Amino acid sequence: MTEEKHARLIIVRGGGDIATGTIARLYRAGFPLLVLETEKPSAIRRQVSLSEAVYDGEAQVEDIRARRIGMDEIREDAGRILDYYHRELVPVLVDPGARSVQFLHPDIVVDAILVKKNTGTCRKTACGAYTIALGPGFTAGAGGNCVDAVIETMRGHTLGRIIHEGGAIPDTAVPGAICGFTKERVYHAPAEGCFYSVRRIGDVVRKDEPIAYVETAAGEKILIRAKIAGLIRGMLRDGFPVTAGFKTADIDPRESELSNCYTISDKARCIAGSVLEEVCARRNRVGYGRKY
């Protein structure tokens, strides 16, 4: 890859389900990408998260394939490696601190980690890259600790709104309603320990049925039971270490929506479209810096 192509690189921090929507949209549009992840991704909707490549070496969501690569590969011959992946699939690099930004000098950094806070992405740390962040915890504006654009991730009329001054709606800690259910849909670890599933993603379960358990350091197995009947849409990997309150599973009350477990969500696609719009505006200098 030449230096000119290097300058076209987009780095996406995060490979969870919402991030995967953005990755898929950008990859299909022909942009060269590098995805950065942690050593132990905690995606719940694992069937639609390219972060699974960290564990399995490769992952596929819809028509998008991803493969884990090593930091040594990037450092040794970044141009050749990234050029190959641009043609074949999406590279996923374990780099939670985004050190690769410093020597790859990408054109754009997209923070799609979605932990409701800024874990380090801003103009000051982006080495000249244009910065786009998803969700609350970021401020768009002119300061060095700001990003260039924030994308609204809260469901509703403003979902996908591109913000160039200010931030997204603060996190409410209440999941979006499906068939009238909100908090009942999402499951958290009852104690510190290791998570193990009893049922699998895609299974239909009844209310009060065990779906998983947490095994504590003392060997106690604490069951997690379904609070509603429905379809298991997301669940942590077996053996994942959790703390009390850690998100572990997600149930969709619509039992007929099995395909939703394996395809990118409407929310992820909407957010991805806004990221693509902002990337294109950056490249074409259309409405650059406009305020909404």
Topology diagram in text:
Elements: H1 3-6, E1 10-13, H2 17-28, E2 33-37, H3 53-56, E3 58-61, E4 64-69, H4 71-88, E5 90-94, H5 100-104, E6 108-111, E7 130-134, E8 149-151, E9 162-163, E10 186-188, E11 193-197, E12 204-205, E13 210-215, E14 221-225, E15 230-235, E16 240-242, E17 247-252, H6 266-284
Parallel strand pairs: 1-2, 1-6, 2-5, 4-5, 6-7, 7-8
Antiparallel strand pairs: 3-4, 8-9, 10-17, 11-13, 11-16, 12-15, 13-14, 15-17
Keywords:
single chain; 292 residues; alpha/beta; 9-stranded mixed β-sheet
Protein described:
With 292 residues, the protein is an alpha/beta fold. Helix content is 21%, strand content 25%. The chain has helices spanning 3-6, 17-28, 53-56, 71-88, 100-104, 266-284; strands at residues 10-13, 33-37, 58-61, 64-69, 90-94, 108-111, 130-134, 149-151, 162-163, 186-188, 193-197, 204-205, 210-215, 221-225, 230-235, 240-242, 247-252. The strands form three sheets. A nine-stranded mixed beta sheet has the order 3-4-5-2-1-6-7-8-9. Strands 10-17-15-12 form a four-stranded antiparallel beta sheet, with no helix packed on it. Strand 3 (58-61) and strand 4 (64-69) form a beta hairpin. Helix 2 (17-28) crosses helix 6 (266-284). The protein is globular and about 55 Å long.
